[in-house]
UniProtKB/TrEMBL annotation:
InterPro entries: KR_dom (IPR057326), NAD(P)-bd_dom_sf (IPR036291), Sc_DH/Rdtase_CS (IPR020904), SDR_fam (IPR002347)
Record organism: Blastopirellula marina
Name this protein carries in UniProt: 3-ketoacyl-ACP reductase
PROSITE patterns for the chain: ADH_SHORT
Keywords associated with the record: Oxidoreductase
SUPFAM superfamilies in the record: NAD(P)-binding Rossmann-fold domains
One protein family per Pfam: adh_short_C2
Occurrences of domain Ketoreductase (ranges): 7-185
Length: 246
């Protein structure tokens, strides 16, 4: 499958979980992949090694997406190594499970800076540096459409991502660039399983019509579809990938 042959993709937060699967899925479809990480270089190198072992091309690049200068550097390195960037996947994110009452200023600022500012900085670079006909794919969350206690600050960030997705789609449409969001449900990632008690995990599993949590392998193929010509007529959309949870 070479739907993305000759394309270059940047995936923020690509070293683990959903991001890692997105990286390997894009590479399997023929794209050259820039695997971004913030701190875990070893995990990013492992993703690159898997891609290269399968015959693909990838590099890892350290960048903190909450910093505008780091996001510019991410595009700089991608262009130096692989040429013009065609696909941006804004996947990097942090979770926050606390009630609004007890959330501190510092905690709220952190989740906003990574989830909202990071996505904004990526789209702002893409506005002038992405190839015509390119693709921007943002990661949201199906929790946005659910009334879940302790999810308020996190859902606020993902609601912002969804609205920026719609506006940016209108702005980029004249250049043939599509902008969409993927909205996973509860997924078996280190981030989700490590931040929730077993009772809550079981409750989220039972909410899905298909009766299970998502797997990281459920997400990559959807991103490949949106990044390819097959998904070229959809833009400004939020695509739930949640097994019928919401």
């Amino acid at each position: 499958m070479n739907k993305l042959a000759s394309k270059t993709a940047i995936v923020t937060g690509g070293s683990r979980g959903i991001g890692a699967n997105i990286c390997t899925s894009l590479a399997a479809a023929g794209a050259k992949v820039v695997v971004n990480y913030a701190r875990n270089q070893a995990a990013a190198e492992e993703v690159v090694s898997r891609i290269e072992a399968a015959g693909g091309q990838a590099i890892n690049v350290q960048a903190d997406v909450s910093l505008a200068a780091d996001v510019r550097k991410l595009f700089d390195v991608a262009e130096q190594e692989f040429g013009q960037v065609d696909i941006l996947v804004n996947n990097a994110g942090v979770v926050h499970y606390k009630t609004i009452e007890v959330t501190t200023d510092e905690e709220f600022d952190r989740v906003m800076r990574v989830n909202v500012y990071g996505t904004f900085y990526g789209m702002r670079e893409a506005a002038t540096r992405l190839a015509d006909g390119g693709r921007v794919i943002n990661l949201s969350s199906s929790a946005v459409r659910m009334m879940l206690p302790t999810y308020g600050p996190y859902c606020a960030t993902k609601g912002a991502v969804e609205q920026m997705t719609r506006s940016f789609a209108k702005e980029m449409g004249p250049r043939g660039i599509t902008v969409n969001a993927v909205s996973p449900g509860s997924t078996e990632t280190e981030m989700f399983l490590g931040n929730n008690e077993s009772e809550k995990i079981e409750r989220m599993r039972n909410l899905a019509a298909l009766g299970r949590l998502g797997k990281v392998e459920d997400m990559g193929p959807v991103v490949v579809f949106l990044a390819s010509e097959d998904g070229g007529w959809g833009t400004g959309q939020v695509l739930p990938v949640n097994g019928g949870t919401a």
